[in-house]
Each structure stands twice: as C-alpha cells, then as structure tokens.
Amino acid sequence: MRITPSIALAALLLSAALTGCAGGGQAEKTPLTPAERTALYKTAIESARDQEMNEAVPVITAETDDLADFILPMAGISGENAAAYALAISPMNIRAYGIAAVLPAAGKEEEVLEGLNGFLDTQQQNFEQYLPDQYEIAKSARLETLEDGTVLMVMSEGQDALFDAIRDAVEKAD
After folding, report:
1. Model pLDDT for residues 106-149, shown as the tens digit of each residue
2. Beta pairing partners, 86
C-alpha cells in the first residue's frame, strides 16, 4: 500500500491533536485545602489594602480570633456555612467598611449570600440618615460569586480597585 504525502500529513496532524487531548497539555492543579484557601483570602485582602487599614481592621480567619464573636454573626458567617473565610469588617459604626471572602460549605451558598446581603442592608440603613457619604459607600458595595465559588464582598472607598485586586489574587491561585 502506498501512502501519499497528504495522507501522511493528515495522520501526523491527527496524532498530534489526539496527543494534546490525551493530557499532553497542562497538568490539573490540586484543589486548595480549606486552610490554604483561608490563607489565600487573608493574604489577598491584606495585599490589597495599605498597612494602616491592615492594622485598623484586622482580618478574621477563625472563630477564635479577636472580635470574631461580634463580627462573624454580623456577616452571617459561621463554621457551619463556610468551608473557608477571611473577613475584615469595621466594628465601629462610623465607617462603611467590610471585606469578606468566603468559600461556602457544600449547599450553603444561599445562606452565605443572605448573611452578607443582610450585613450590607444593615449598613445602608445605619448610614442613610447618619452619614450620607458612608451611605453612598454602603450602597455601592460589591457582592459577587467568583468562578471558583468564592463569595466576595467589598464595601469600602475605592471598592472597585480593592475588589479587582482580591478577585485577581484568588483567581490566580486557582
């Protein structure tokens, strides 16, 4: 049997395509553990903020952290509805400020979204008649679910830049 050059070329191209589909491409990444994801969230939040804000509003990553007993219920986050989280929320009602990165536990995304939406609603109500500039910040807050399932909330001056920086750090690691 005689093989023409065009048949040989077609066979070579088919072989190369099949090799690429069979795993010759990039290796799949191992999913992050909850502890690794929590560390990622904390680093992403702290890297997006300046040192002054990191000192003024520390990131909470565990129920045993200072202020966790106060902050976690405000945001509707618990060890039962979150597999991993990092929150930086101002405990003082003088500033509309809160950042949360949460990986909901299985089947708990709606509960996490409801908790964070409730926090944002409360902040808007608190500042509506009290501090109009902070009310505008609270109204402009961003709350979205990222492709990897992370629920990201940012309520702050310059929230778009903060949101983008945190989102990019989380997505880069995934």
Report:
1. 999 999 999 999 999 999 998 988 889 999 999 999 999 999 99
2. 101
Q: How many residues does the chain have?
A: 174
Indicate the SS3 state at residue 32: coil
Residue pair 118/72 in contact (Cβ under 8 Å)? The answer is: no
Given pLDDT bands bounded at 50, 70 and 90, which one contains residue 32? Answer: very high
Long-range Cβ contact pairs of 59-63 (< 8 A, separation 24 or more): 59/86, 59/87, 59/88, 60/85, 60/86, 60/87, 60/88, 60/89, 61/85, 61/86, 61/87, 62/38
- Residue 68 sits at the vertex; the CA angle it makes with 114 and 164, to the nearest 5 degrees, is 60
DSSP string, 47-100: HHS-HHHHHHSPPB-STTSTTHHHHHHHHT--TTTEEEEEEEE-SSTTS--EEE
pTM of the model as a whole: 0.82
Residue 5: strand, helix, or coil: helix
Name the amino acid, one letter, at 22.
A
Domain spans of the chain, in order of start: 30-173
Q: Give the pairing type, strands 151-155 and 82-89.
A: unpaired
Contact 41, 85 (CB under 8 A): yes
Q: How many Cβ atoms sit within 10 Å of the Cβ of residue 107?
A: 8
